[in-house]
Specification:
This protein is of the alpha/beta class. The protein has 2 domains: 3-201 and 385-398, 3-Layer(aba) Sandwich (Rossmann fold), CATH 3.40.50.2000; 211-383, Glycogen Phosphorylase B (Rossmann fold), CATH 3.40.50. It is built from 16 helices and 13 strands. β4 (113-117), α4 and β5 (135-139) form a beta-alpha-beta unit. It starts with a strand and ends in a 7-residue tail after the last helix.
């Protein structure tokens, strides 16, 4: 029986990401080892503690049934004020608040494993490990210094975070990589950790092809039976996922002779519409939807292909890509999205474009039915919540600790 602390710093506990990537995985993991005690320790800005209480009530009850305690810890968060969350002084601010709390839980809950989600919350468990026998799992989720800081403009903060990253990699017992592109990225520095590759998960029981829903939704939107729908789902906030990039892609595909349109499922509707107006994208060229996680599958069912393209190089393999595959949607990406590129080339689940080639797009469209079956199989075998939960469970068991209460 293990006593595990899964730690989070200032993430929205009602967000689709936390619900699918944390709650669902931990609940599924508990089915494999139901006697484990998991304390989900979530530091939250004090002003959010009461406002989100009702919103997460159902999740709290659901977690409790699986022997998972959601513990909210009030904290102070530095106001954005136009500042990057990666500024160097954020780290000591987080450490001074998290260290005494996590040490307290280590003692009273007899915590033997700290599972640290992302960079800010990881330093305190690493410090606790220095004078206890606790094990630390570093789960970075992204390349935080490169993602949060502008190269050449925030050099001091970048160097501080890279120094801290080096400490994490040399002191964590295990580091989770979403794809091998993450492992390769982290191995550029000195490291003493063991890397385990575990991808973003998807609920394959919710995200699955449904021909009936597909026909109903397409009929409502007056989409022809042979019309091709390219879909993007996720954030579009002018940084990594830039609406301008997709505006340019729509323009490039205007020469495609096969009738097609684009579907965008995003909460950033204002940014998208503004960008499309600038680039002269017409309203009859795309559909725009905002929805919650629970509604996502019925809108993804409309599509024939999922798209994820970037203008800047990045190592990520996004959650949306796992959802595309689970829905049986072949993925179109470019060589800048290294994690997705790796998955497509490894499993033959779509197309990686460097310079747009309409013949390649046409060939992809002609083979979409065969590819769709393959995408679904890959999702079920490698990206399902059950598979990822099993990998988590294996990590915890690998420490081979004799847990006692």
């Amino acid at each position: 029986m293990a006593n595990i602390a899964y730690t989070i710093w200032c993430e929205n506990l009602n967000s689709s990401i936390i619900r699918s990537q944390v709650y669902d995985v931990l609940i599924e993991k508990q089915k494999l080892s139901p006697r484990d005690n998991i304390n989900l320790i979530a530091f939250q800005p004090f002003y959010k503690m009461f406002s989100q209480k009702e919103k997460i009530k159902n999740s709290t009850l659901k977690l409790k049934k699986s022997n998972i305690s959601l513990i909210q810890i009030p904290c102070f968060k530095i106001p954005k004020l136009g500042l990057s969350p990666g500024k160097w002084f954020v780290l000591p601010f987080v450490f001074l608040q998290s260290f005494p709390i996590l040490l307290f839980f280590k003692i009273i809950k007899n915590i033997s494993i700290f599972h640290c989600r992302s960079y800010p919350i990881t330093l305190a468990p690493i410090a606790i490990k220095k004078f206890t026998s606790v094990k630390v799992v570093f789960d970075p989720r992204s390349n935080f210094p490169e993602e949060q800081l502008k190269p050449g403009k925030e050099e001091l903060s970048y160097k501080v975070w890279k120094f801290i990253e080096n400490i994490y990699l040399n002191n964590a017992d295990i580091t989770i990589s979403i794809t091998s592109t993450y492992t390769d990225h982290f191995k550029k520095t000195t490291y003493g950790t063991k890397f385990i590759e575990i991808p973003n998960n998807v609920d394959v029981n919710k995200f699955k092809p449904d021909s009936v829903i597909k026909k109903q939704q397409r009929d409502q939107l007056n989409i022809g039976e042979n019309e091709i729908i390219f879909c993007y789902s996720g954030s579009l906030n002018n940084s990594w996922n830039n609406p301008d990039t997709y505006a340019k892609f729509i323009i490039e595909l205007r020469s495609l002779k096969i009738k097609h349109r684009f579907l965008f499922i995003t909460l950033n509707t204002g940014q998208l519409i503004n960008s499309f107006n600038i680039y002269g994208i017409k309203e009859d060229e795309y559909f725009l939807v905002s929805c919650d996680l629970d509604e996502m599958p019925q809108y993804l069912a409309i599509a024939d292909f999922g798209i994820n393209i970037m203008e800047k190089k990045d190592i990520r393999m996004s959650i949306k890509s796992a959802e595309y595959l689970s829905m049986g949607l072949p993925i179109i990406t470019n060589s800048n999205v290294l994690g997705v590129k790796e998955i497509i080339e490894k499993h033959n689940t779509g197309l990686v474009i460097n310079k747009l080639n309409l013949k390649e797009i046409n060939d992809l469209i002609l083979s979409r039915e065969r590819l769709s079956i393959s995408c679904r199989e890959i999702a079920c075998n490698f990206f399902s919540t059950e598979k990822v939960a099993k990998d988590y469970s294996s990590i915890y068991k690998s420490f081979n600790i004799n847990y006692r209460i």
